[in-house]
């Protein structure tokens, strides 16, 4: 996909084909995120050192981000998904709020106005701002602080050399930067929106509330109904319940164990939450809208 996208962008003068090339590159940037995710869970080859190296290359060159930072944050999410003051994926202010309990103390009129329209801003505006903040501030800072310049720093440099020295060669700096913005916008919207389907519309648990491992997966995780297109589009992470139960399992194995997980949940009276893709997409954006309304009015939204 990288070769196809670069070819379409570089080999033709047609703006339509160049736009298609950027679109393909944006999608494959997101897919680098899916694959590096598996490397970060050490479920790609089964060799931790190899998986870490693959993750660093994929995330650094493919997304311009730090694999070590991601592992640190993502492990916290897996330990306590949707738990207040524990799950870092709930700590999204000021750009967005997925639950009114996270934004009930917002006082700024400007921030309230922003949150009121967060459902409309989420993709592409908020996704783009998050990605740029990660690429050019948070992740480079982490690389410097943890002394990873000789590994992750190199891959960030390779990414920018490929972009500005090869892909955007011959373009003005302004046009090259605008193309980079469009490329990042598409990639970040693709992966962040799809990641949000798995948890963000679900209730949260309180900081002093304790659930066991299976309850976290049952109460705070959603599966997206499987079909070949959705499985590819979401890289088998549409089986999010299975992924949270078995985070070290190769993702393509999730459909195999899914029937057994359903039987386990039925046996113990747990709800196996499975929703169609577009239904869950609507519910996710509707939740953003409802939470935004509640935040702008200073109310709690249940």
Q: What does this 3D model show about the protein?
A:
The protein has 14 helices and two strands. The chain is mainly alpha-helical and 302 residues long. It has one domain. It has a two-stranded parallel ribbon. The model has no long low-confidence stretch (mean pLDDT 95).
SSE inventory with pairings:
Layout: H1 2-11, H2 15-40, H3 48-63, H4 67-79, H5 100-103, H6 109-116, H7 118-145, H8 149-167, H9 173-196, H10 213-219, E1 223-224, H11 228-233, H12 240-245, H13 254-267, E2 274-275, H14 277-297
Helix pairs in contact: 1-2, 2-3, 2-9, 3-8, 6-14, 7-9
Global mean pLDDT: 95
- In helices, the fraction of residues equals 55-70%
Structural class: mainly alpha
Please give the order of strands in the largest beta sheet.
1-2
Number of domains: 1
Alpha carbon gyration radius: 20 Å
- The total of beta strands comes to 2
Which features does this protein show?
1% strand, mainly alpha, 14 helices, 302 residues, two-stranded parallel ribbon, 67% helix, single chain
Structure in a nutshell:
The chain is mainly alpha-helical. The protein is built from 14 helices and 2 strands.
């Amino acid at each position: 996909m990288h070769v196809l996208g670069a070819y379409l962008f570089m080999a033709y003068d047609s703006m339509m084909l160049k736009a298609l090339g950027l679109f393909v590159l944006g999608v494959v940037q997101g897919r680098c995120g899916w694959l590096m995710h598996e490397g970060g869970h050490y479920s790609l080859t089964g060799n931790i050192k190899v998986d870490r190296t693959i993750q660093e290359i994929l995330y650094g060159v493919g997304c311009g981000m730090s694999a070590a930072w991601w592992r640190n944050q993502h492990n916290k999410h897996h330990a306590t998904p949707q738990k207040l003051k524990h799950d870092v994926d709930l700590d999204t202010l000021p750009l967005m709020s997925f639950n009114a309990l996270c934004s009930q103390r917002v006082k700024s009129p400007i921030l309230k106005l922003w949150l009121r329209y967060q459902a409309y801003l989420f993709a592409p505006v908020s996704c783009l701002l998050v990605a740029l903040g990660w690429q050019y501030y948070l992740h480079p800072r982490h690389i410097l602080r943890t002394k990873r310049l000789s590994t992750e720093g190199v891959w960030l440099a390779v990414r920018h050399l490929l972009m500005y020295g090869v892909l955007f060669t011959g373009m003005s700096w302004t046009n090259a930067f605008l193309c980079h913005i469009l490329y990042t916008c598409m990639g970040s919207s693709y992966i962040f929106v799809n990641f949000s389907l798995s948890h963000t519309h679900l209730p949260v648990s309180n900081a002093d509330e304790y659930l066991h491992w299976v309850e976290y997966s049952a109460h705070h995780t959603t599966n997206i109904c499987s079909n070949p297109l959705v499985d590819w589009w979401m890289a088998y992470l549409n089986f999010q319940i299975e992924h949270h139960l078995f985070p070290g399992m190769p993702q393509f194995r999730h459909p195999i164990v899914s029937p057994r997980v359903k039987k386990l949940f039925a046996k113990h009276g747990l709800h196996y939450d499975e929703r169609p893709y577009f239904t869950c997409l609507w519910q996710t954006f509707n939740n953003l809208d409802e939470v935004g309304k509640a935040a702008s009015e200073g109310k709690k939204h249940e």
